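Hey L., structure's done. Input below.
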Amino acid sequence: MTAQIHVEHLVKEYRVHEREAGVWASVRSLFHRRYRAARAVDSVSFDIAAGERVGFLGPNGAGKTTTIRMLTGLIRPDAGTVAIAGFDVRRDFERAMRHVGAIVESPDLYRELSGRENLELFARMIGREAARRILRNAC
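Output:
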């Protein structure tokens, strides 16, 4: 079976300001800052088949949101590849994103609604054909 989502060796690093303790260190940091590389995602690879439902679990800071943002094209990976429905997210973004629906970082926008009810609400907002596709694939 061909993967609907194919992720290979995904990497993302951020430049993080190193903070030193003390008042003078805080003043000094206004003029001279030290940075270090923080790897948020370290060579992540996986495949998800069409129709397969998966959960993305891990502790805070594990890189879950960063990975989802790379999958949806919100941020660019430093290395690795993402293909959705056979389309490379970097080279063929629009065609790849036709197969994606995501709410990143605010899934509990309407806490009083169930997961399916939230999907139905968002589907109605984006149009009839998209709503049919979302609801057909909903759990």
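The mean pLDDT is 83. The chain is about 30% helix and 30% strand.

-- N.
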